[in-house]
Amino acid sequence: MSNEDILSEVPVAGDLFKSYQLTPEVIASGYTFTSANKAVIQNLISAYAHDHMQLTFDPAAPELVAIQQATIRGAIDALSYLLSADESLTKR
Q1: Residue 86 CB: number of other CB atoms within 10 A?
Q2: What are the pLDDT digits (tens) for 27-47?
């Protein structure tokens, strides 16, 4: 299957085990974002950070806030990784 064929497939959300064999050029292209993409990603990070600040501890369910914090932290880390990958490629 060529890279064009691979890129014409639309990844399905939730298909955790689907992966693609990509050339280095396609990988670099996939990690290069437009200014609008970067702004949207940063806005998502900001929204998650605000959500994190709004969490409240419930003594009746102490594990709940820990789970919420971990979920939010994971989302922030994943989005930050994407911005970092874009930055490292554009510095080359």
Answers
A1: 19
A2: 888 888 999 999 999 999 999
Q: What gap in Å lies between CA 15 and CA 74, rounded to an integer? A: 18
Distance between CA atoms of residues 60 and 37, nearest Å: 40
**Residue 8 near residue 36 (C-beta atoms within 8 A):** no
| 48 close to 29: Cβ distance less than 8 angstroms | no
Q: How many CB atoms lie within 10 A of CB 45?
A: 18
pLDDT tens digit sequence for 56-86:
999 999 899 999 999 999 999 999 999 998 8
